[in-house]
Model the fold of this input.
Amino acid sequence: MDSVASGSSMTGLVLTAGGARGAYQAGVIKRVSEIAALRDGPSPFQIIAGASAGAINGAALAAANSSFAEGAAQLARLWSQLTFSDVFRTDTRALAKTGGKLALDMALGGLIGGGRADALVDSTPLRGFLDRHLRFDGIAEAIAKGDLYALAITATGYHSGKAFTFIQGQAGHPVWNKSRRVALSTQLTLDHVRASSSIPIVFPPVALRAGAAVAYFGDGALRLTTPLSPAIRLGAERLFAIGVRCQEAADSLLRSELAADPDLVASLQRPPLAQICGVFLNAIFLDHLDADVDHLRRMNELVSAFQSVSHTHDAMQSGVSEPMRIVEPLILSPSADLAIIAKTLAHRLPRAIRYVMDGLGTPDAQSADLTSYLLFDKAFTSELIQLGYRDAAQRIDEIEHFLVGARLSRRRA
Done:
């Protein structure tokens, strides 16, 4: 069995997503696990970093890190069986109760005091669902065997506004305290995953112990503007990141806004509130990964250029508090627009949720992002699993070279 050491070359998996879109990642991982060289062994990822729905996926994989195929199959089952009732209460009484609190705060909060509502839905069922599917003792087992160096789960502190990365890993793993980011060594629990995946406003905050205090946390993607950073700081030299935004669809929307054609410009309608909410969630969940990948590639160019003019590696690192290195990324993103897929299945939303969504207005199909975050339904998640599987299959040779080559290099080290 290969042992992971902080000085060896390690491959990291970065999973940052939003809501139901996380099912796409499960499809990608499922196809990757079928690579012959990886099928019967431990995960090729010694470092796993997750935030938001990616925290759920990361914890599930880390718990089965010593059997990659088993972990991938379990993750796909988790998402393919998902229903709304597994995530939040959909009965009229529960929705009326949370809606009534919100209405009372908005209408009479100035007179009688507010703060009754802390979320739009009651997400109590999610705790039971995750408890049935996540085996946290498997994380410690994988670390003890040397198959996993560290699992990092990020949540947002609602008091400080900082991104807190909670890390369970081998002894001596790095921790940090930056202006906007804090890393703490801990034993990860179900509540860490719940906090990281608690979509702001939609789901309530989750109480976690941070040091000696107990504080409240929400979705990890909210303040994690550099989602690749935790894995890099933990020592990853290669990063496999799975996004959940179709770049071609994003480019198409941009072209429509920049179009010189008067007919196309005239077709752009005033955005309803649902569309504005979708853009808001995109800014939290999707845009950070794209920007961070661009930043990583620029830094790689800078390090490479500096190495070419430096006589020695030691000369390059002298006087640098955090030595820099080239980190090789491989990014996989959806080939189809998840918003359009969600639009075709919007009728599967619970009646009460659909009623509220209709009240927010109807965005055009390519801008129906809000629905795609909240469509916790197996018809939608199964579509995303299949899409992720197909997208990974299209690039499987590239992925195999990236992951299997890294494993062989680590064995020789």
The first strand starts at residue 10 and ends at 17.
